[in-house]
Write a structure and sequence with these properties.
287 residues, alpha/beta, 15% strand, binds flavin-adenine dinucleotide
């Protein structure tokens, strides 16, 4: 089933994201994670794609396929293009299709200063057009940035580029993580004014520890509201309290998003079923 069809009858979508183990680790570790996520009954689970990796270097395809076949849950495979040639992407599309995967989250990928881009795809919109022209019938989603992509000069420029992504064929969007819902609402309003009318899922990452958040924020530039930094300062040396406060913060964010009529919520599970369970059980009846 395509992700866009999950939104039929005004349904609010609740999805999870997992990442594959590194290729030199056993694939079984992800099955322990999926065993713990299965009965939370998400609408779909997406599987990230190692930055700079080729399909041969990561388990994305195997895991996305197992989510469907073994766990009976819809899946989406992330796919980046900046370090791939068209020939390589064609091979990946064939493999995804042969594995019965229906959905791709089409991304450019971060530019790694140590790996020169292959230059056959410049933007995710190039990948989306390429998938559309490939003859395969994948559902296609794209990424969006409530606080603007770090390379964009302005939010207006970023939203104009986002419109190009949707015009190329992205049927739904999943947002970068954020901790201040008001920035998400402001972004949604501007996206709608720009004529972006596809469903937009809000990306929520529960905080587990201070280090994790510092790393994420340095990568994506998410702003941290005062109540969030106070929480981190108070509990940073008490891991259990920090975890519980992080879960409560994510639950509050989700309740507020649902009250504002968000199209969907995408939970970055960080392969932690315990945290995903506590959050899901707190909000599931609200969807
Ligand atoms: P693009 O859409 O290409 O945008 C990149 C920049 O180019 C933006 O500044 C944009 O405004 C600009 N731009 C876009 N189109 C045009 C155009 N036509 N003309 C001019 N400028 C343009 N990374 C991974 O490596 N693996 C993953 O699995 C992964 N999953 C992710 C999932 C989500 C939900 C999100 C939000 C991000 C994910 N990322 C992942 C990170 C992502 O690869 C980076 O954020 C990357 O820097 C941008 O990818 P993009 O697809 O948004 O790029």
């Amino acid at each position: 089933m395509k992700i866009k069809d999950l939104y039929a009858n005004d349904k609010t979508v609740f999805s999870f994201e997992v990442f594959p183990p590194k290729r030199d680790n056993p694939i079984e570790t992800i099955f322990e994670t999926l065993d713990g996520l299965k009965d939370l009954d998400p609408d779909f689970i997406s599987v990230t794609y190692g930055a700079g990796a080729s399909l041969a270097d990561n388990y994305t395809c195997e895991i996305a396929s197992a989510i469907k076949d073994k766990y009976g849950i819809e899946s989406a495979a992330h796919l980046t293009c900046v370090n791939s040639t068209k020939k390589e992407v064609t091979e990946v599309l064939k493999r995804l299709n042969d594995s019965g995967i229906d959905n791709i989250l089409a991304l450019r990928g971060d530019i790694n200063p140590d790996i020169p881009p292959k230059k056959e795809f410049e933007y995710s919109s190039d990948l989306i057009s390429f998938i559309r022209e490939s003859g395969y019938d994948f559902g296609i989603s794209g990424a969006c940035y409530p606080e603007t992509h770090i390379e964009s000069k302005s939010q207006i420029e970023d939203i104009i580029n986002l419109k190009k992504k949707v015009d190329a064929g992205a049927e739904t969007l999943i947002s970068q993580l954020f901790f201040d819902n008001s920035l998400f609402y402001d972004f949604i309003e501007k996206a709608r004014i720009a004529g972006i009318n596809v469903p937009i899922e809000a990306g929520i990452m529960p905080v587990v520890n201070k280090k994790q958040i510092e790393r994420m924020v340095s990568l994506c530039g998410a702003s941290l509201p005062g109540k969030f930094t106070k929480m981190m300062a108070r509990y940073e040396n008490k891991p259990e309290a920090m975890r519980d406060a992080g879960i409560a913060y994510a639950v509050n964010q989700i309740v507020d998003l649902l009250s504002h009529g968000v199209d969907g919520v995408h939970l970055y599970t960080m392969n932690n079923p315990y945290i995903a369970r506590r959050i899901s059980e707190s909000v599931k009846s609200l969807f």
